[in-house]
């Protein structure tokens, strides 16, 4: 490949509307161009990188025994009605109509399509297990598309779906995919961690996310210093609290005329924030109690985790109570709420840490007052529910004896045990060994192929631009020719070197654009080529090439043998 025959268009200026360094550098390197919000064109340069990522993903999926196929991006409403996700998927699902007014969606994921394929193709246990995958464009109408291809609306995903007769076999394949993902992200040179994840709305029991560690990541990941335990915030648990101490104080009402937050109340009373309790009023709706008011309690220095709270029995789909509802049930205003209610009719859900507190402070359900010295069992009934409903925080004790630390991550992959949700909803059965129709159990495994490109840049860049991990680089080596138009000997030598490199299986590109050395080197550094070799008149005379590694500090003059030894090592 010769750059004079390629399309490379770089810029020096940092684009004003790009916040993340990966977004800035992808634009500056000319890898992507925006078409509309969350929609990006991959330039020839960008596509080379995307294809390299795809290649690693494909090789490892194939090696792990998955079978590649491809499914349509446009999928009929009827199929999505069968799974119930036409409505449930929400506004991320882009719905479209054809000329006959028939409705379709643009696939955000493909459980329905693959299950439809499977029910047409598979009818016997002998055809199981099987794992189908595709590398295909997805569309999600994200509320806030941002950070370029990191959170786009249209993006490339590798999605795989496995089918099994038994749950044990699903677990085996889940581990197989986990191992394949570990190989993929290791080969791509990424610093990553597999973290336990909440199974979420899709249902299913076990789920892990592969997170690339980066301060710019949108996700928080908790890990323990005591073991390899790592989990996302929806799932992470601290150690259970120590048993509740005995009551030491009498209950007393304190005036807090303008103090509404736990911080303000703790400051006024001169007590640690950890002695206060925050009351969050929500409305839940379940079959047993219908629409009802619930007070969720966390320690003053903690925050409610919405997903965890939604897992408390009866609280699925809860919402925050309105001020009118709060007034109706507690006769007070936000800022002064608490679980001590004269009628004792309110359902109280206490975080584990709150249930283990003594002598604590809560709102008095009276504007301008709080109550201190409160104790469970004595001043108010024991909580109806005790559950882990809070976010872990840095420094929490972990169950393994270590300490919880929190870092940021970018989710690049997800492995998931789905179970029989789709096979049952879509009436997909196979005959088992006894000739009985049985619904197969499923796993699904996603990788954000296009997101990986941005995530890799977040981890690998310097002041001069991108520093690609070798397997992702658009080319391994750039052969830079000084003054190619006027110096036939130098030009010939460079062409010969290029041919030789390629003959040795090295993916090299010739920069024969005729730029001044400074501008040429700046481009090659910006686009992150791992190795640079300069062919010049001076070098030719001395029988050497000037070599510099993208990560190295100094350029060196190397003879031909040394150069090849270096590039092939
Ligand atoms: P996120 O929490 O980041 O929205 P998700 O949980 O919705 O991700 P999955 O449904 O598990 O993602 O999709 C599989 C993979 O696809 C993710 O691990 C991620 O790498 C990638 N992905 C998801 N949404 C986007 C997006 N808007 N842009 C780019 N990649 C995405
Ligand atoms: Mg998402």
UniProtKB/TrEMBL annotation:
Notes concerning its domains:
Consists of three domains: the N-terminal catalytic domain, the editing domain and the C-terminal anticodon-binding domain.
For this protein, the record's Gene3D superfamilies field holds: Anticodon-binding domain, Bira Bifunctional Protein, Domain 2, YbaK/aminoacyl-tRNA synthetase-associated domain
Please give the name of this protein: Proline--tRNA ligase
Recorded catalytic reaction(s): these are: tRNA(Pro) + L-proline + ATP = L-prolyl-tRNA(Pro) + AMP + diphosphate
Q: What class of enzyme is it?
A: ligase
Which positions fall inside the Aminoacyl-transfer RNA synthetases class-II family profile domain? 38-469
Q: Quote the EC number.
A: 6.1.1.15
One Pfam assignment? tRNA_edit
Q: Which PANTHER family match?
A: MITOCHONDRIAL RIBOSOME PROTEIN L39/PROLYL-TRNA LIGASE FAMILY MEMBER, PROLINE--TRNA LIGASE
An example molecular function term from Gene Ontology annotations:
proline-tRNA ligase activity
Q: Which organism is it from?
A: Pseudoxanthomonas putridarboris
Q: Which gene is this protein's source?
A: proS
Q: Where in the cell is it found?
A: Cytoplasm
